[in-house]
Design goal:
192 residues; single chain; 26% helix; alpha/beta; elongated; 4-stranded parallel β-sheet
């Protein structure tokens, strides 16, 4: 059986015993039915993994004991940022999940002229919290040890105006004079 992985955003030390956060407790004990003595892998997004075991389970909480640290680095040496137009919620969740699994370090959502989904200022925090949950779940599943960052949504114009050192490649379906300083990739010209 595969040892389940959980993201717990706090520092760990070998030999440390602590109570699992509520969300992690629900998933580990109530959903996966892990019991005392069963192993689990913890990571805090700062690199490496911690092998731990459940040391105590009660009705509303569980404690774990950190056994060892593995300095595994599963991150790509290439720093990638995905700039993605905001799309319908289920499709956006899927795009975020796959981007994390493929090794993207930063995700910049864009509000474009033809975006179907509109995000009001009061909804941004709620959306970012939801997207962070998608990123955490994708990291737990894919074995990543560092957490990608999801930026607050920007307009295309504002993103293009931000200074950037490096290469920007834009997958664009048509000719856009405003994008001439960037390397454009036109999907209809790609051959597979």
């Amino acid at each position: 059986m595969r040892v389940p992985r959980f993201y717990v955003p706090q520092p760990f030390a070998v030999g440390q015993e602590f109570t699992l956060p509520d969300m992690t407790f629900r998933h580990a004990v109530q959903v996966l039915r892990l019991g005392v003595g069963e192993p689990l892998i913890l990571f805090n997004g700062e690199g490496g993994e911690y092998l731990a075991q459940i040391s105590n389970v009660s009705k509303r909480s569980a404690s774990v004991l950190v056994d060892s640290f593995c300095a595994i680095d599963t991150e790509s040496p290439i720093h990638l940022t995905l700039v993605q137009a905001v799309i319908k919620p289920d499709k956006m969740d899927f795009a975020l999940q796959k981007a994390v699994e493929l090794g993207v370090n930063t995700i910049q959502p864009l509000i474009t002229q033809r975006s179907v989904v509109r995000i009001g200022k009061e909804q941004v925090d709620k959306k970012l919290q939801h997207w962070d949950g998608i990123v955490v779940a994708a990291c737990e599943q894919s074995g990543r040890t560092r957490m990608p960052i999801v930026q607050a949504p920007l307009t295309l114009e504002r993103w293009l105006a931000t200074p950037f050192a490096g290469t920007r490649m834009i997958l664009a379906p048509g000719d856009f004079p405003a994008l001439t300083p960037y390397r454009l990739i036109y999907p209809h010209r790609l051959r597979f």
